[in-house]
Design goal:
This protein is mostly helical. The chain contains 13 helices and five strands.
Amino acid sequence: MTQTFIPRVFSGIQPSGGLTLGNYLGAIKRFVDMQENGGFETVYCMVDLHAITVWQNPEDLRRNTRELCAGFIASGIDPEKSILFNQSQVPEHVQLAWIFNCVARMGWMKRMTQWKDKAGKNTENASLGLFGYPALMAADILIYHATHVPVGDDQKQHLELTRDIAAKFNNDFDVDFFPITEPVIEGAATRVMSLRDGSKKMSKSDPSDLSRLNMTDDADALAKKIRKAKTDAEPLPDSIEGLEGRPEARNLVNIYAALSDSNAEAVITEFSGHQFGTFKPRLVDLAIEKLAPISNEMSRLMQDTSEIDKILARGAERGRTIAAPILAKTYDIVGMLR
């Protein structure tokens, strides 16, 4: 008999510091949309266990986890509508991850491009946690029987592995227990690029702060960075095809489209023939309108983190009400005494 799964979304972000516009447009804004309009139960997480696959300063990790939670809330994630927590407070994630470590194959893990990129040539010096990261990600998703996951391009391969692990577990034990989770990849700016180099992803690790818009930037900082963003001398074209070979122009158009809940085609129609001297001030106004309130609310929340801690603790309790029965049934299927 085929099991029917509750439509449920799970996604998470690492609390490694420096929440950027890329995190907001590529992830958090979509999380809010799915909370309000998707018809799903929504579960969102600060994945602090993933963060420590590379070394983290403990005090920084605590602060970054709280700041990320503040960013979620300030952006519109409602802890009453969504389950919001940090991963390490729900031990079922790790318990299921061990089961999945025994389901996943070494060859699957070695093919993960993020493992190759992050471990580099010195794989012997990389942590075992970094190697097993995708199995923990699969557990994060499947401990809630999540049916959908909003992901960026850089996580598509990991979600494919999650589907493989679910399918192999179901096949190994002749059950229809874990869903084959569907990716949700959409939006005008799912991949936000650097303001200094349109061929590179916007990143908190870039040495130049001018390369990114931070969600903690005030209005003056937002305006300065957008005015200084790299562009070219050509006016905006009259069609999307005219942005080919113009990565910086395409990036700013995508950002405008995502902030205005529009699309690149509509932005091109509105600004066709205009120089960036006209377009950038409009983008500044839009960015301040949309982002400054988030920055202000994050600042307020971080002034008294006890409110954040209470929200995370309550979210963990709610998360465990879903996760604990799923783990218990998993143990039964595997043959473990409880």
